[in-house]
Design brief:
Elements (H helix, E strand, L loop, with lengths): L19 H15 L26 H15 L5 H7 L2 E3 L7 E3 L3 H13 L3 E3 L6 E3 L1 H15 L2
Antiparallel strand pairs: 1-2, 3-4
Helix pairs in contact: 1-2, 1-5, 2-4, 3-4
C-alpha cells in the first residue's frame, strides 16, 4: 500500500493543535469583541498575586487571563480555583533573602470563572469540584483554534 491509499480521514482542529500563545491572543480578542464579559472597576489597579509589586501593564490583561483560563480548563477538565492559583502563581522576590513561591489571587480567578460561566463557555462539574468546558464553549474554542491554524 502506498501513502496515498492509507490516508487518515480529515479531522477538525482543536485547541491542542495550535500554539498556546497564538490561541490565547486570538481568543482574548474574540472575548473583547464579543463584549459579554463584564469588566470590574478594580481591574486597572489590582495585583494578580501577592508576589507581584504592580498591576499588569497590558490594558487587555483581563481578557488574556480569561482566555488562558479557558484554555487550561479545556486541556485539563475538573480544574478548580485552587489549582489555577498554583498555575498562575510565581516566585516572590524578597531582596537578598531566598525567593519563595506564592499563589495567585484566587478572587480574581474566581471572578473570571464566573464570567466565563455566565457566557456559557464553562460549567460546574457534577460533583461541584472544579469546572469543565461546556459543549458551546468547546465549539467556540475549536472554531477559534481553526481560525488560528488557518483551516
Amino acid at each position: 500500500m502506498s501513502d496515498d491509499e492509507v490516508s487518515s480521514p480529515p479531522r477538525g482542529t482543536t485547541v491542542k493543535d495550535v500554539p498556546a500563545e497564538a490561541f490565547v491572543k486570538a481568543y482574548a480578542q474574540h472575548l473583547k469583541r464579543q463584549g459579554k464579559i463584564e469588566i470590574p472597576n478594580w481591574v486597572d489597579y489590582v495585583k494578580t498575586s501577592t508576589a507581584k509589586e504592580l498591576a499588569p501593564y497590558d490594558a487587555d490583561w483581563f481578557f488574556i487571563r480569561c482566555a488562558s483560563i479557558a484554555r487550561k480548563i479545556y486541556l485539563r477538565p475538573n480544574t478548580g480555583v485552587g489549582a489555577l492559583t498554583k498555575v498562575y502563581g510565581g516566585k516572590e522576590r524578597r531582596g537578598v533573602r531566598t525567593e519563595h513561591f506564592h499563589k495567585a489571587n484566587g478572587g480574581i480567578i474566581r471572578y473570571m470563572l464566573r464570567q466565563l460561566e455566565d457566557i456559557k463557555v464553562l460549567e460546574q462539574t457534577d460533583g461541584g469540584k472544579g469546572r469543565r468546558i461546556s459543549n458551546n464553549g468547546q465549539q467556540d474554542l475549536d472554531r477559534i483554534a481553526a481560525a488560528v491554524r488557518g483551516d
